[in-house]
Amino acid sequence: MKCFISMFFMIILSISSNVTAAVNNKPSLAEENMLFMKNKASFNQHDLLHFSSRSFKFLAIVPDGKTAEETILFYRDIMIKKANEKGYSFTSGKKDLLFKIEQKHFLDTKDKLLDQQHLVIRQNYSQAHDSAITEKSESKLTVKKIAKNTPVPIIHSSLFTASNASNIKQKTEENISADQHGELQSYFEVTLSSKLSENMLKNNSINDYFSIHPELAKFGIAKDEKLIRQIAYSTQMSPGKFTLPNGKTSSFDIEVWASTPDGKPILVELAFDSEGYASSVEDLTLQEEFFVSAVLEGMHAYALPDATLMGSKLRALKAASEQLTQ
User: Fold this and answer.
1) Are 22 and 181 in contact (CB under 8 A)?
2) Which structural domain range is residue 232 located in?
3) 4 lies in a domain?
4) In a domain? residue 247
5) Of 28, 63, 117, 254, which sees the most CB atoms within 10 A?
6) Could you tell me the pTM of the whole model?
7) Quick check: helix, strand or coil at residue 194?
């Protein structure tokens, strides 16, 4: 296991050395160069209004010798300091200093058939990292459809109907990060989440999830395909919100992943969520200016310099796993 963690770090360092840090080149903040303006020019306005939130993602390097909790506190303090230096105030939230512990199980077939369809199936277990999953375990089931070339995934027009799951919640989101030139880039996703009891899973196959989300059957994956779990051991905190110049806010969340229950942190994400495309031009402009100024510029020394990850922890985890098996 120590060998796995060591190899993981070597892979991350290899990735980092072969790319240019996104923040070394500052994006132009002229209105025509703003990401939201480019999207409005490229996509149907009505389609964009479906996306109720914009999540700005910043993957950070893992500081040496720190636990997950220490890493979170380290980045909380630095981010607040850097934002204050740029003129942004911070307000602590009710969950400040509260750590949330989860096991995140990502499911796919051996041949990565879900990934090929830009689908993600994940189960989040709110239990200790070293506790076993049993038939009595409860989880939050999340199904995502990710769109790379259009803001409206196919499943958006025919939402899943859950036969055995309760309280289906839908979230539509744009995920934003910086590319290798420091320009903002994004992808869109539709997320459906519900509660799930482990005893509902009978065959460890995709068929278990067809019964909950019948729409999955439309993607051409045989129902008897067995699923493999890739686990991320997550520690999270929601410190509070930053205030933008017009009084609107951007929430601030930090998440750290480990690859083993008692392992060292391997990934760090800082996320800043704001309202979506129903917002005014001023709101959307200030969101991007905050991310570029306070985060990309202010935190550039801490950036994990791989724009191909597009701010995605799962992409980073998959990239490392693929190289480990080569």
Assistant:
1) yes
2) 23-324
3) no
4) yes
5) 254
6) 0.86
7) strand
